[in-house]
Structures are given as C-alpha cells and as structure tokens.
Amino acid sequence: MGSLEEVDDLRSWLELAGELGEVRTITGAHWDKEIGAASEVNYRRPSPPALLFDDIVGYGRGPRVLTASMANARRLGMTLRLGTSLDDRGLVEALRNRPNEWIADAARYPVREVGSGPVCENVITSGDVNLLDFPVPRWHEADGGRYIGTGCAVFTTDPATGTLNAGAYRMQVQNDGRAVSVNIEAGKHGAAHVREWFDKEGRAPVTASLGHDPLLLVVAGTEVPAGLSELEYAGAVMGRPVDVIRGEVTGLPIPARGELAVEGWLYPDRREQEGPFGEWTGYYSGGIEPVLTMDVERVYHRDDPIQLGAPPGKPPHDYSYMRSVMKSAMIQDALVRAGLPGVEGVWAHEAGGGRQLLAVALHQRYAGHARQAAYLASQLPSAAYMNKFVVVVDADVDFRSLDDVMWAVCTRTDPAEDIEIMRQTWGSRVDPLRAPGLPPFNTRAVIDACRPWNRLPDFPRVAESGRDLIDHVVRRWPDILGGSR
Description:
Residues 321-449 form the 3-octaprenyl-4-hydroxybenzoate carboxy-lyase-like C-terminal domain. This protein is of the alpha+beta class.
C-alpha cells in the first residue's frame, strides 16, 4: 500500500484513497446535471466515499471528474497529512494548534520552481482554446452555465510585494469555451490584488489550477493571514515545497503536478453575464451579474486530465465537512491566542455551511465570560465572514452535535435576556436574505446557552448517565452498543 509521503498530486492521492477503499467510480454519467445530482445524493450518505466519474457522455474514457474528495474524516485527515485512519474526534484532536504551526512554518517552504512538469504534457495557445473540450459539468439544474472552477485554486499576486494568494473562486465557462469568468468576492485577498493591478497597469494577471492535490483546495478555500502564500502554507502541511512552473504569459505560478490549468489577464471592462449558481448557502443566490472575465491565453493539461469538482449547494455539500473542520480548528486557536480562558472547543456546523453557525463550548470562570466568548468568536477574522449565529454552551454539552447545542439553547437560554443582536456586519452577495442592489451587510446573533452564572450552584442536574457508566455498558455489550458513541 502507498504512503502519505508518496502523495504529491491528485493521481497519487487517488491511488492511496483507492487502496483504502475510499473511492467509487461511476461510468456513463452526463455532464449536464447528472454528475451534480449523483454527487448530491452521495454527500448525504454517512461518511460518503469519493466519486470518480469516467466515460462521461460525449467525452469517452480518460477525462474524468472527481467529487467528494474530502467529505469524510479519513480522507480529510489523509489530505492534511495527519493520518489515514482518523475518525471525526481523532481528526479534531490531531488538528489542535496545527494551523498555527503551519502558518509559523510556511516561510520555510518557498515554492520550488521547475522547468516543466506533468501539467505541461499539453499546452494549448489562445487561438485553439476550447474549455468545452473537457467534460465541464453543469452542476445544478438551474445553473446559468457550466462551471469548470469549483475545486479550483485561483492565483493572484500583490503587485507591490509579489506575495501570492490562492482563492477558490467559482469559474464559469464563457464564449463557447474561449473564456472563463472569475467571481471573486470583494472582501477577499484576490479581489484586492486585482484592484491594485488595475490601478497600476490596467490589467491583472491570473492563473488557475482546476485539478490538483485536494490539499490545494483546502488552502485556497480557507482564510489564511494576509501576506502569507497559500502555496507556502501547503508546503508546511506536506513538509516539502510545492513544485511550480511559471506561466508562459503572466509568469504567475502553476502547480507543476496539476491536472489542468488556465492563464490570462483580467481587464476592468471585460465582463460577461455570470450565474445563477447554486451556492453554499443552499440557494441560487446572486442572480445574473456581469463578472470579470478572462480570455484564456494558455491551457495546460496532463493527458486525460482529472477535474477536481467541489460544487456547493444545500448542506451537506462537497466541501462543507472540510470547511467545518478547518474553520473550527482555526477559530478555536484564534480564541486561545486572544487570551480567552476555558475554551473546550469550537464547531462550525455544516448546517450553516461551516460559516453561519458556530458553537463554542466553555468552562465558565467569571461573570460575563460566556458573552465575551460569543462576541470574540463572532468577529474574529477567521470567523467574521457571513457568520450569523454564535452559540456559547457549557463544556458538558457536545458542541459538535446540533441536537445537543439546540437542547442547551432550549433549556439554558432566556430569549429576552440571552440573545443579543449585532448589525451591519460582514455579509456576502450570496446571502439569500440580501435584497438586490444593497450592500452585503448582515445581522448576527450571539446566544448565551450556558447555565446562568448566578445559578451555577443550584441549576438542575442533567438527567443522563455519566461517561464512565456509558463506557462500562458499551464495553459489556459491544456488539449491540458499540456504535452508539
């Protein structure tokens, strides 16, 4: 069997995942909605496998699409190089303080520039570009087009410092395959880079990888500190530098062992109508709007490339589990770094897409402690975007269980006293509650679902067996009760 040390691209990742029994292959699916619908059914299964689509209608065998790459603990642990046998609890424990360590170590892993790589097996120049030569899915029934960029990593640079940013921005095929729109939220680091390039030179260079080691999707889809290269962050996770080539047109990096990549320039007045698209909130949000569009000047791809698909949608969706785990670890570390004592754990629930609903478990130590935790968590840079509810619970509550969290809300929250509202906070264009044309503000609630501080000594005891007794009966009747915890 292969090892984590041997994983250096999507194909070696797939080989190891296959040996672990974590991959299923579907043949004969149609790019128009069938790949998306089959993936959606799979996301809703317990511990869903990765799905590899081959022999896609109209494209034959070879060009493939992968979905659900990190939809369970085992594959996410594998992708993060933490192990190949982790369950949910083990993954959370293994991630404690790791994001901080990766951030601190990132500078030790600058990218390694190479002259060529597998992604250069085929290079297509602008006159011959047709992105529809690849089996690009229409993911949802009401999508406005085919989206080649869902599990992508879009690379931009700061024109003043050269610092690289990678973001997972959705990309819709335009102009019969000759162009691709890049939908970047205004508050993202990549959007700032593009604006700065427009101010300086009137255009902005962009490359985008569309199939790669799923680790690059993790780092592109997770907020890392401004000024830190996501490729260096990925190098810290792997323990070795990421190999890149330089784009022939822009000079920006492209993962050398990637499957499929594009390159070109964005211009302020070059826009195409984009959307609608089924978003991570679970709605077709944002409508149809003119979006910055790149006329593709180069396509790089391996023979029979594999697209990494990560379509959002009503949770659970492709990357909601990954986002929940990563955001939870980052927010917990940020609370501890801020000096907040007594933090038992944080979970960014999948029901809120890993962003909108946070549960913080706390050992209460002083009056006002729960509210302090709630306010801090709601506005941390790693948590603030699109957050709507922060629920603080006592440490005896399983903060990863939505049932337990809501039980605490129902039994320990006085709605008149324990729910506070924050207004005009950082929202998103994809919020289904945002009226068209209005700024993307949102409103958020902090909910104190802890036992009241002044009633801790006499608050009623919870009517459930203790952990020692539960463990005892599970050990006595493991065949019947072994899966109950």
